[in-house]
Amino acid sequence: MKFGIFFELSVPRPWTPGAERAVYENAMEQARLADELGFDWVWAVEHHFLEEYSHCPAPEVFLAAVAAQTTRIRVGHGVVVCVPQMNHPVRAAERAAVLDIVSGGRLEFGTGRSSTWTELGGFQADPDETKKTWDEYVRVIPKMWTEERFSWEGRAFSMPERAVLPKPIQQPHPPMWVAVTSPGTELDAADRGLGCLGVASAGYEEQERRTQEYHRRIQQCDPVGDVVTDMVTTLNFLYCHEDAAIAGERGRSFQAAFGLANAHLLFTREAYATTAYELLGNLVPSPRRAEAGSPGAERNLPEGTAIGDPDWCIEQIKGWESIGVDGINFLTNGLEALPQDQVLESMRLFAREVMPRFRPR
Amino acid sequence: MYTGTKPVAELAARAPRMPTLDVDALALPSVEILTVTYEVRADVNEAMLPAGLHPTIPPIVTFVVWRAETFSMAQVRIGCRSGMRPRAFLVSAVVDGDAGPPLAERWGFATRPGTVTLERSYDRLRATVDDTLDVEVVDPVPLRPNDIQWIANMNLADTPRGLRLVQVDADYEVYRAERGRPRLAAFDAAAWSEPLLEPVYPVVATFAVADITLPRLRYVCRPEELAFFATEPATGA
What we know:
The complex is a heterodimer.
Chain A lengths: L1 E6 L11 H19 L3 E4 L14 H11 L4 E8 L7 H14 L4 E6 L4 H6 L7 H17 L3 E4 L4 E5 L13 E5 L4 H8 L2 E4 L5 H15 L13 E9 L3 H21 L3 H4 L23 H5 L6 E3 L1 H13 L4 E5 L8 H15 L7
Parallel strand pairs in A: 1-2, 1-11, 2-3, 3-4, 4-7, 7-8, 8-9, 9-10, 9-11
Antiparallel strand pairs in A: 5-6
Chain B lengths: L7 H5 L13 E15 L13 E2 L4 E8 L4 E11 L2 E12 L3 H8 L3 E3 L2 E6 L2 E6 L3 E11 L9 E7 L2 E7 L2 E17 L11 E16 L4 E3 L5 H4 E3 L4
Parallel strand pairs in B: 5-6, 5-10
Antiparallel strand pairs in B: 1-3, 1-13, 2-4, 3-4, 4-5, 7-8, 8-9, 9-12, 10-11, 11-14, 12-13, 14-15
């Protein structure tokens, strides 16, 4: 089981001078600590216009800074939005290659297509097209990285022959992932040999079904690149404290703040009738709550949430491990609801008491 | 965190009287539904919602026109959140026919009488409401029936428990769905009771035919408090 931290870089109002900088500095401090503690990944999103929820439109810049301040942890684009109005595929390939170089070959390349009208509408992108352009991007970007010169005539873009430079350090190229929100995207991932980067919550039962199908299907994949990333990760909240009551109180506070900020966004399906988006983004019903009478029910948390004392966190993660999940990425704070020292304490305790239970001895 | 800032006292004037929250469902077969969505000016968005609702980012307005067997109704609704749930706050409605009073008394639709038209030509569908609204779905193309999402209404009404946001989550059995470009030829915001409402950017327009069931009421909310604390079962509490 691998572990990562996942940054949306949410900034609560009021947006006083220095507020955004403080959020970025806190995140970088968490990334440095995660590097020291043995976390495997630090991921950063690409989002645009998402007031409060995410002020992270240029993850490659943030991740370059993280890479410069760390030595071991892998840096993940979580994700590059594969929509021409937001990112030309050549620019996406170039920026990723530079990040792979400056990080010393530590890049994980996540891909996606955006789920909000807030973003797609802002860039005047056609929601009907995003799945198609994503599919084109994930097929051409590995070619840009591995072929000396590249030319293309496609749906999203065309270009005459050029050398797309630089090339990434990792050979043949960095691992590739796709963000999975809508049911069925895990199948798109499997068919293309891409890692399944879970970015929306699902309960154990639903995640088990998706994970099993993914692992079965990827065995027959037609990879879009020269590397198959056969991994499923999920997104979770992390607050670990020796006192379960304190953990619950603090963890629920940032989970609720984060959820409410997320709920303000205008998801594509709500605004724009389309076949291309099946769900109301993250406004779908929350994963199943723990059964009445169980410890989870008392905590009022979705099942599998890593908010609790170390034993509780171990139990939840074992649950994910038992259904075939390969890694968990954690949101460690939301809208700065927790002071930084509490976030760092939680990460340290998690690394000391929980992570060793999932590492080879 | 954004929440509405409109004083409920100002909204109360347009809240219809509901003598009871215990109402039977009503089936409306084969209703033609035209919906046009625009983004609206963001800087006044909070000022159009009560404190119990959150604006969306960006804010939107939906113009919804139903042509049922015995009446037509046009609604102007502002997209919002009640807690974390997607909802649409009813600004006001116009009803053509005798259905206005029962729609107001049973589901809290703030209606006034008027003339609502819905015309179909080969390349567009057009809805008008007197001289206060003129919207079109231009160049419609077919969608799958479940591709259109209608969000439940929050209708402010004067109920036996006092002013409440009444959640009306109508059920839709869709037979036909189309999508086109939106066109807003005329909109008199003041005539619809919200002079601040200014559509500024077109999003989408749809047309559908569906059986609609106006439901038994499940939940109401106190309009000045957040839904997490202010949601009540409509009946039996």
